[in-house]
Each structure stands twice: as C-alpha cells, then as structure tokens.
Amino acid sequence: MSVPPVRRKAQELLQWLGLPGVVLIAAVVCDLAIIINASFDDTGPFAVDLLMLPGIVALTACALWGSRQPVLAAWVGAVSLVASTVLIRLSDVTPYSALLPNITFAETVAGLELVFFVVRAANAGMAFATTFSMVVACLAAVGGRSSLSSGSEFLQAMISGFVLLAATVVVAIQLRKPRTQKVRSELVTLLRTHWPLVGLLASAVFMDIFISASSGLFALVVLATNAVAVLATVYAVKRPVQAALWLSGSMFLSTLAMSAASDNIPYSNVGGFSLTQVLSGLVVVVFLVRTEAPRPATLSIGLMSLVVASGTAANINVDVDAMRGLSVTATLLLGIAVATGLYFRARDSERTQAVETAVNEAQTSERMALARELHDVVAHHVTGIVVQAQAAKMLGEKDPRVVVDALGQIETAGTEALVAMRRLVRSMRGDAPSGSTEVSEQATTDLGADLRKLVDSGNHTVPTEIEFDLPDKLPQEVARSALRIVQESLTNIGKHAMDATLATVSVHPVGEELHVKVSDNGTVGASGVPGGGYGLVGMRERVDLLHGRLAAGPGPDGGWLVEVWLPLDGKEDE
C-alpha cells in the first residue's frame, strides 16, 4: 500500500526535526500566541511586541541547525540572543517571562538544545567555552531586556537557570559515553512515534507554566502534575486503563495542592485544573473508548469524572449558575471525546475487516492458483501414466516391445510429475527462491518450445499436429495460460477421446488477442466433457483472470473443440 504524499511529507519532516525539533516548534507556537495577543491589546504601543519575533526566529533556526553544526550554531545563537536583547532594549518592549525572567519559551528551549548538542558532540574545552558563551548571553538577556523587580527575582532566575543547565549537561554527557546498542524502552518508542501528540501536550505545558508563573510554589506543583499527565497520555496509546489511573492520581494531587493554595488559583475558568490535565483527560477518554471493552472504559471514565467533579466543587467558589455552566462545558467536552473515540473505533473495525477480507481473498486466490497448477501439471502426467499402463496391459501379450516403450514413457511421466509436485510443495511451504513465487516458477520462458515439448512427449497417446505463430513480446501471463489450456485440452483428449486418431493445436494472434484452438476427430460422445472434473473450470478461471473468452463444445467436423481468446495486454485481475 503506497503512503499518501501528505503523510510521506509529514514523516520526512518529522525525521528531519526529531523529537527536540518537535518540542521546539511547540514552544515557538506558544510564543506566537502570547506575543500576537500582547501586540494587539490595549496595553502599550500598537504591535511593538512583534519586535521580539526576530530573536525568537533566529535562535530557533540556530537550534535546528545545531544538530549538524553544534559549535558554530551555538556561537551564532549567543550573538543572536544578545542582538535581540539590544533590539528589545532600544524599542522599549516589555518581554514576558516564562521558565526564566525576560526569556521566552522558544529562546529557553533553543538555548538548552544548543548546549545539549555542543556538550554531546564537541570536545571538553570547546564545549565549556561555547556553553559559557551561551550562559553569558542568557544573563545579559535576563538583566538587560528589563529591570528585575528585586534581588530575590534575580536569585530565582539564577537557581532556575542552573538547574536547567545542569540537567541538560548531565543528559548530554551521558549520551557522549560509548554504549552498546540498547533496545529503546516502550515509552521512548511511543514518544518518537506519536510526535503530534507530544507537540500538542508540550504546547499545553508551556502555556500552563506561563499562566501559573505568578503563583509561586504552586507553579512547581503544576509542572510536576502536568509531567505525570503528559506521560500518562502518551502511555494511553498502549494501556489506556492504567493511563487513566495515573491521570486520576495526578489530578487528585493537583486538587490537594489547589486546596492548600487557597484563593491563589489561576485556573478557575477551567474548573480548577490545568490546561494540560484537561487536554490529557480528553485524549485518554478517546483512547479508552477506541481500544478498550465497554466495561473497563466506562469505569475508568467514571473515575476521572468523579475526580474532576470533586476537585471542581472543592476548589472553585462560584455560584450555582457558574457551576451549571462548568457542568455543561465538561459534559460537552466529554461527549466530544467519546464521539471521537467511537469514530476511531469504527474506523479501526473497518480497517481490520478490510485487512481480513483482503487476506482471505489472497489466500483463496493462492489456493485456486495452486489447485489449477496441481490439476493442469500433475494430472497431465498422471493421465499419461494411466493411458500408457492401459495400453501396455491391452497390447503387452501381443507385442512385448509395447510394454518396454510404455514403461519408459511411464517413468518419464512419473519423474516429471514428481518434479512438479515438489515445486508446488516448495511453494506452499514458502521455500521458493527469493524473488520468485509459485506462479513465476511455473511460468514459461519460451511458449513455442514448451508447446513443442508438450506435443512431442506424447503422454496423451493421441497423435498431435501443432502450428503456431507467436508475437515477439508475449506477456508472461498470457503465455502461461495458453500453455496450461493446451495442456489441459490434450489431457482431456487422452482421457476421454479414446477413438480419436488426430488432435490439432493452433496458436495465432488475431488482432489484439491470442487465439488458442485445440480439437480432435473423435466422436462427441467419446470426447465430451468428463463428469466431476475440474479441467474446464480451471480453464475458465484462467481466461476470466485475463478478461478473455472461452468456448468449448462439439466441433463442426466431430470431436471436441476448445477455443480461447486471450487479450495480449496480459493484465490480470488483482
């Protein structure tokens, strides 16, 4: 099955970005949402906040470049950060704060990724110098873009920055050490596979950090519970029930933290839960409905709903009308998630059914092809053995030489039957040579030579005349089918036209078709179609696969006549 162009392009983009690139793009999206909103509000000069974008774009580009040229990209990134600081200072822009004061999400993530790439790839001296330059540029941006309100704020920035920097360096150093190739954990595989979900959740986490930044210690609780929610959501791809339990636990802890925070809760408009937790809950519900049986899915959704309801009632002091509005909103979101899960469940069921149908059709087609080959090839040789044995039995007493000649032909036919049987068995066992199939192994490479060999073998015991005029480029499917049709027709003559003294075979192109004609001069009663056989059935199947025509019946001059017209384009039904 070919991959759609849009999906192929998305896969190529993912391969180029990698997981760091996806997280970086999510941070850029959050920055754009915040800066564009601030640029067109009623606070400050119109659109002046857009002057923060050049620095964000430059540092993001350096981070994407850093996976290939880490040292050079890091130095350019440090210069870009300083230049952006100068531009912001001169234009009197008020930068917003995220993980670090006066530093946006994208700039923070891009800087950490540059440090990661440098420490992982460069030697110790160059890594230290380059990382030091990034730290200096970051401190210049923190202190130079806007004055900090207090010394404690600067100390908080120093501590936060040191923790982020230390964690990044430790991870990068660990990846520098030569290690034996290990199988990736299931969680890492899920993170790499479901990158759109990771990017969406990363965006929600960044927004939550921005919203809760002013709430002090509560922001750390939000970050910790959001991390658990993100991991649970990604894990829901494989085990949604366990993920629902983890998510319910993280939301319960968040409820306790909000109770301790008293009135300082920045999430009253979403029922007291962070955006990441709300989004994670919806995604987990989708996976529960999509993959789980109704009973565990209902119990898991009920548990999450109970936690949400109790948390909202305990932490949000609103009137009855506001609670009614939150209840309607929560019910609507839950209904959308359930409907989405049902849609994906129905689509998965259709795909599974389609795959099973395709497999069954392929198996049936293969069985029919093997049955045709078994009947056309092996039965042909066995018929020759039976006819020769009968002739030897009837004429052996009168002429012993007939017995010797018949035994020789019986031996030849038996050997050929064994070869054909082994070939079919090897195909059915899957032991065919690489690149070959049952059909290709049985295919003819020279139809004229194979027709001559078929007639000269004389296994059907009826003298046969043959004439043919074959095109230069005869499709393999047409040649194979023509050979098998002639073979089956001669086999039927040998078995059922005992009074026939001559059989004729003619193969000629007629227009855009190959005309195959086989006839004998026996009587209609003797050469008629045998009862209970599959010869004509197999011939008709071969002809139908090539969209050809078949006619079989008494000939105008007596005997039996088989005529087939096969299109020369050789296109088989799939």
Structure description:
By secondary structure, this protein is of the alpha+beta class. It is 69% helix and 6% strand. It has 19 helices and five strands. The chain has helices spanning 5-39, 53-66, 70-91, 105-121, 124-144, 151-176, 186-193, 195-212, 218-235, 240-261, 275-291, 294-315, 320-395, 400-428, 438-442, 447-457, 476-496, 524-527, 535-545; strands at 464-468, 503-510, 513-520, 549-554, 560-567. The protein has a five-stranded mixed sheet with strand order 1-2-3-5-4, with helices on one face. A hairpin with a 2-residue loop joins strand 2 and strand 3 (513-520). The longest helix is centred in the middle third of the chain and has 76 residues, at 320-395. It is elongated, with a radius of gyration of 39 Å.
